[in-house]
Design brief:
The protein has 10 helices and no strands.
Length: 206
Amino acid sequence: MRSRSRKLDEEKRRSLIDAAIEEIAANGIEGASYNRIIERSGLSKGVVYYYFENKESLYKTVLEEVERQFVAAVGTLKIPDDKEAFWDVCNVHYTKALKFAAFNLQIVDVARSFIGPANNPLFDSGAVFESLRRAERWTRYVLRKGQELGALRDDIDFDLLRNVVQAVGYTMDSWLFDKLRGDPESVELERFVEFALDMFKRILSP
């Protein structure tokens, strides 16, 4: 009986997370409604508050689920110790990441509602969470490691370089995802990856 009860609880939890993903993807983090999330889930408010004491705790779980799905599909980027292999490894990882995104635009919409070129007030206040901090640390690690290998430039302030890379990446990805929603047949993913990596190389190469 206990096993069946745990399964039922997980199904309710899954229903709520799926409802939150749909609501945030449709309306963005600022436009998302906790009440609409509850309505979408088909659960009572009492059940929802049993699992999540507030919207913040639910959003934390949503981000963790988005991260889990991404890592499960794409894996983690393992930086080589060889300068010459640096961009090849980045190419493989970036291609896998974009292919995942192309077939999971709802997940993309959720992630991008939290992460933008400007500082997210939820992130600054601590409401959005360890998943974003891990992403931030990961970006810093990749750039630092590339600099140590001599594959990336180190002649300008590190935070400026990181901000430029994030802004350029956000802009290019925005164009790609808009195209995939509106006219997917016009998108050549391999050509886009080639263009994007060329842009990053022009910005980042010593």
